[in-house]
Amino acid sequence: MAKIGVFVGTVYGNALAVAEQAQQILELQGHEVEVFEDATLEQWQAYLQDVILVVTSTTGQGDLPDNIQPLYTELTDKLGYQPDLSYGVIALGDSSYDTFCGGGCTFDELLQEQGAKRIGDVLLIDAIEVAEPELFAQNWIEEWGTSL
Ligand SMILES: Cc1cc2nc3c(=O)[nH]c(=O)nc-3n(C[C@H](O)[C@H](O)[C@H](O)COP(=O)(O)O)c2cc1C
């Protein structure tokens, strides 16, 4: 069973609801799970040999929410390479924006550049089509947790 850190970027709480759903499902599967809002680099670094799930919405024009942007900046500036990390990304957005799910996709690109290993595809959740993102994400989370 895996040690999993769930790192959340949210403005209005939708991504947090998905993260809490993920915690519930993954714990039922026997994983050890902690959810982080306003996370620090140190909290991230505690998972460098383990598993991270990034659950983030998009704000502005393809930007990361304020509660996860500082972590992204620190990862970019201070970490560089994280080859032993396995991760997944759930990206929330709205397809009426040009930069659909830009926040989650930007995070994914950074982790790819830094040599981390993505488990599964990025899950994109479109607010135009999905009223309850935490229910929509259930199957993806179950499959992701099983494949760890
Ligand atoms: C001011 C504002 C800007 C947004 N910008 C984008 C964007 O650039 N790209 C996108 O895909 N979604 C964008 N969205 C949609 C949100 O990402 C989407 O509604 C998401 O479900 C919100 O999740 P949250 O409650 O966790 O923040 C924007 C929403 C707002 C209110």
TrEMBL record:
A GO cellular component annotation here is: cytosol
Q: Which domain of life is it from?
A: Bacteria
Cofactors needed by this protein, per the record, are:
FMN
Domain Flavodoxin-like residue range list: 4-145
SUPFAM superfamilies assigned: Flavoproteins (SSF52218)
Q: What Pfam family is a match, any one?
A: Flavodoxin_1
**GO MF term (any one):** flavin adenine dinucleotide binding
The entry's keywords = Electron transport, Flavoprotein, FMN, Transport
Quote the protein name from its UniProt record.
Flavodoxin
